[in-house]
Amino acid sequence: MSYIPHTDEDLAKMLSTIGKKSVDEILQEQIPNELLMGENPDFPEGLCESQLFAYLEEIAKKNCSLRELNSFLGAGVYEHYIPAVVDTLSSRGEFYSAYTPYQAEASQGALQAFFEFQTMIAQLVGLDAANASMYDGSTALAEGILMAKNITKKSKVLLPQSLHPEYRQTVQTLLKHQLSFGFVPCCEESGQVELEALEGLLGGDVAAVVVQTPNFFGVMEELDGIASLAHGADALLVVCVVDPLSLGLFEAPGQKGADIVVGEAQSLGNPASLGGPSVGFLAAKRDYLRRMPGRIVGQTVDAEGEVGYVLTLQTREQHIRRERATSNICTNQALLALRTTIYLSLLGRVGFGELSNLCCQRAHYLAREVEGIEGFSLRYRGPFFREFTLVCPLPAEEVVRKCLKHNILAGLPLHRYFSKREDELLVAVSEANSRAKLDAFVGILRKLG
Fold it and tell me: Residue 333 in contact with residue 136, Cβ under 8 Å?
């Protein structure tokens, strides 16, 4: 069918109906003035293909990639080496362009991949079942909280101040009309959730207690005590794991009392890119299986006794009665979940633990070296995995600017989220940061101390 644009007469009738003089008037009412370009940009004349590629390459040279930089950025998006086979398999046409596998008989490969993803996530977090991926970690957390609300029939959730600020913003944006929020402070010394403050905030109206571990500042939380207090108040414990690689060293949250575990799997086989796209996950105890959002792939046997895979549970409102639906999630990050599945398969149980240990050891080496520089110190004394908060002798943004001159991304200045923390820097380490790169970073910081 050919494209038929609106005529000037059509536009005039539509504008008259809504009482507007022009399309520009509508846009100016909705878009802040500082975001409007004003006059049309001065675009160059049309170019042939070879000229266009050359022009774009010149523009691209102004950017820097992680191949050229020694990066210590983290805060939920981490750089890791990704084996070439992950790209090779995930870019196959049958995966790359596949849609929702409604026809099981024609989608066995995709369904099996999702089933393996669910299995691996459930094993990692120590719970009975996981769904076939979510959009990202922040929206997965919102879905986990909503799930807890539907289970408990209560109307309040407690969020820790050590939760990733962007996760907190996402949760409040999505759920502010359905829930009220309480905020639990973290200890000034350890950086962990203050149990006494949590106990004081718990009441009969609390549906869930949320805790992130490692938290936004890199500190590992003590889940046992938090779980005990939450369950004592008949609330569910929702654990957010923004850095799932930590589960290679630390006990799974499901074994520490978590009822629902959500998180972000970007670091498992997916590139940092420009902060996305990413892939979330959600897992829960068997008792809450039918309250889970999204879809669950199950394994079965066909009429001939062969193993097969099917969409076992779909709680999307388009598929079942609206009043029984748990979510309106319409899709997921299936391609990135596939990459996570391939990546975890390549690592295996032993390799996953070794990678976790390597990241942890290098992070602690860097922390010790930096603490030995006059003027630098660790902000918190709680246990950390591979990310820590550093107090600097000068504004953190200045540290970042000076390090960037040496092709080093020093970390994330916390002033971006906390106005009074101008001298604090969040630093993350992975296996991509070799000993030589760590020492180079320390050398630059010594000149700043």
Answer: yes
